[in-house]
Amino acid sequence: MTVAIQCEQLTKRFGQRVAVNSLTLSVPKGSIYGFLGPNGSGKSTTIRMLCGLLTPTSGTGTVLGFDVMTQSEEIKQRIGYMSQKFSLYEDLTVEENLDFYAGVYQLTSSQRKQRKAELIEMAGLKGRDKQLAGSLSGGWKQRLALSCALLHNPELLILDEPTAGVDPVSRRIFWDVIHELAKQGITVLVTTHYMDEAQTCDWIGFIFFGNLLAQGTPQELIDGMEVGNLEDVFIELVKREEERLAKAGAGEGGVR
Ligand SMILES: Nc1ncnc2c1ncn2[C@@H]1O[C@H](COP(=O)(O)OP(=O)(O)OP(=O)(O)O)[C@@H](O)[C@H]1O
């Protein structure tokens, strides 16, 4: 199995707070890995370490074969990242936004022309090229942001809650695009709070208070927990962990 992401005992502390605690995970190339967990559990911190935006406190990790501690520039060049608050220029058109990011990624004019055409097609943005990004609805904005993150043909796409607050139809269209990209061999690491989306991932990791509590295929997790669906898996995991923490006497805000 070729892996796109591999980390062992990756840890990030902010002062006394352990945001990510000794995280060990691997994401096979070409798969979709859903990274789930309640608010504040450490998902974004993990993602920022994997993107080379935040230096881990300890542990080891590679992304596309590059070291997260020492090769963050190599990593940044090869991944597509869409943050929770993706930045589009609202007063620029769809095409101008793509042009801007093509400039950031230093695409040649022929690469730019080709990728723009491919991505406008992929995202279903044909006919909207001259529309201001600010006038697009949430679902379109999101697909434009995804297109911007894909301009440089990244091998790995990291998406932090890409569908938060978007209507169900737009979410479905967005996920169809994600699955299509995975079919083309792109690895996707995505965080979501929507269990219907999580259910379609190849792999799932569940993080709570910085600890990875469970990892596997959606069906493995459901079967292992002997419950009916993923939502119940997570409710059960949280319940068990809270009981464990209560027994261990860990107070709110303490080091966990
Ligand atoms: N720069 C920082 N300085 C101090 N604490 C931080 C910093 N970034 C994150 N944290 C803390 O680390 C913990 C994990 O936060 P993180 O943003 O990674 O969670 P999350 O799972 O992505 O949450 P959400 O679903 O709300 O985005 C939280 O307690 C948060 O307050």
TrEMBL record:
<dbReference type="InterPro" id="IPR003439">
    <property type="entry name" value="ABC_transporter-like_ATP-bd"/>
</dbReference>
<keyword id="KW-0067">ATP-binding</keyword>
<dbReference type="GO" id="GO:0016887">
    <property type="term" value="F:ATP hydrolysis activity"/>
</dbReference>
<keyword id="KW-0547">Nucleotide-binding</keyword>
<dbReference type="InterPro" id="IPR027417">
    <property type="entry name" value="P-loop_NTPase"/>
</dbReference>
<dbReference type="InterPro" id="IPR003593">
    <property type="entry name" value="AAA+_ATPase"/>
</dbReference>
<dbReference type="GO" id="GO:0005524">
    <property type="term" value="F:ATP binding"/>
</dbReference>
<dbReference type="InterPro" id="IPR017871">
    <property type="entry name" value="ABC_transporter-like_CS"/>
</dbReference>
<feature type="domain" description="ABC transporter">
    <location>
        <begin position="5"/>
        <end position="234"/>
    </location>
</feature>
<protein>
    <submittedName>
        <fullName>ABC transporter ATPase</fullName>
    </submittedName>
</protein>
<dbReference type="Pfam" id="PF00005">
    <property type="entry name" value="ABC_tran"/>
</dbReference>
